[in-house]
Amino acid sequence: MKNPLILTFDLGTQSMRGMLVNKQGQIVYMIQHKYETPYYSKKPGWAEQKPEFYFDTLCFISKELKGKSPNGFDDVIGVTLTAIRDSSVCLDENNKPLRDVILWLDSRETNYVKPFKWWIKTAMKLAGMEATLNKQYKVSAANWIMENEPDIWEKTCKFVMLPTYLNYKMTGQLKDCPANMIGHIPFDYKKMNWQSKNNIKRCMCDIPKLQLCDLVQTEETIGMITNQMEELSGIPEGLPLIATGSDKGCETLGLSVINEEKAALSFGTTATVQFATKKYFEPKRFLPAYPGVPPGMYNPEIEIFRGYWLISWFKREFAMKECVEARRRGCDPEKILNERLREIPPGCDGLILQPFWTPGVVIPNAKGAIIGFSDVHTRIHIYRAIIEGIGFALMDGMYSMERRSGQKIKEIYVAGGGSQSDEICQITANMFGLPVIRIQTHEASGLGASIAGFVAMGEFKSYEEAISQMVHIKDVFQPDMEEHIIYEKLYHYVYKRIYSRLLPLYVKIKHLT
């Protein structure tokens, strides 16, 4: 075929995109559907969605995309899907959902922790990880269902991730790849397979292997598009659905981060820093490195769970003036807020923010904090403090992973909504003291999934060749090293000390409230 295309679906928290991508890395056509209701909450902190919501949205986008393309899907050689992580579905004996999807941002917990074997409990206590072990047990959706919906769990024949269920709906095959097995499930991330019975971490979520899906490798075909799927979506029957990986893994690949001198920053609802390495290492103690999309690759990662969600929070609570101005100017409020970042100096005149509105895995007692207020501070100081606070947390994650791996990062590639701002990219370059690079599109996750699709279909001999043809540098933000020195001092002498100093108060708050 002269101009082959990959049909890629990128399922996010707030929206879904369908796109046709060519071998030059161009998104030829794209349809984005923003969810009117991304999730619903039966109780505060819960986040669920109906499984058919995602499948119906995918089919709707597919039909619209096919109609937009002059050749329909005639030039499509393969289909890929990349999706949000740690969102789980219970299926019955006929692979039909028994309840709605529990999404990754759901914060429900079990009331009890099943007693662990004495030697596991002792080992974790000696390692100082007992609280983390208990927390991981309590936040595992499967454990919550076992405790609170035993009738549902009794009928559950398969417990799968959301993309695995969509794979089944598209092909009739309940299969997925290691790069999608990112969640609270008994998965051995180092061996890229299901945990053995004797794995010390299995106690956090002990689901029998028979209740888990079959695994295939990235680049392998999950199955062929079925006749029923063609009728519902317009995707031609017989096209291969190719295994790729999670949205973050595909994003890292789409940013061209496949060697040890580059890091990928994602400025999305969850902010992350990911490395690429063929050597397995834990980014933090007892925190696994996730399987990357290229076979044999790992993506160790540090997450800031409420990341650039904080901008939405700030906009809702403090930025009515900018929202009104944005409507008048016909632009997004973020554009106006980001322009105003230039009014505030590095370090926000002493205002420092710790962005743990939702605590991390290994810091379960953390909370958000802003310190250093004085009479000079304004709303825009707070806004810039949010950007810098996320930056400090990502710096902390990157430095930690450099120490644990021996890697030395020389370039940073960025994606996600926040990366569209020149001001945020420049602040990031100044904070890290490294070049910050933007590629030709902020749809890096869809691009990465398409790269994997073209490699799988033999259009490129390797990921390196595919990246050389499909990923193009658009902007480079060089760091202001004088500002970097200011940020380094603030990081080492202030930010690094906030958590340890406030931890006793966080624990006390938790007990009192």
Describe the structure in brief:
The protein is of the alpha+beta class.
Form type: globular
Multimerization status? single chain
**Main beta sheet:** 6 strands, mixed
CATH-defined architecture of the largest domain:
2-Layer Sandwich
Text of the CATH class of the largest domain: Alpha Beta
Name the strands of the widest sheet in spatial order: 3-2-1-5-14-13
Radius of gyration from CA coordinates: 23 Å
Distance between the ends: 64 Å
Helix content: 25-40%
Number of domains: 2
Number of helices: 16
Poorly predicted ranges: none
CATH topology of the largest domain: Nucleotidyltransferase, domain 5
**The CATH superfamily title of the largest domain:** ATPase, nucleotide binding domain
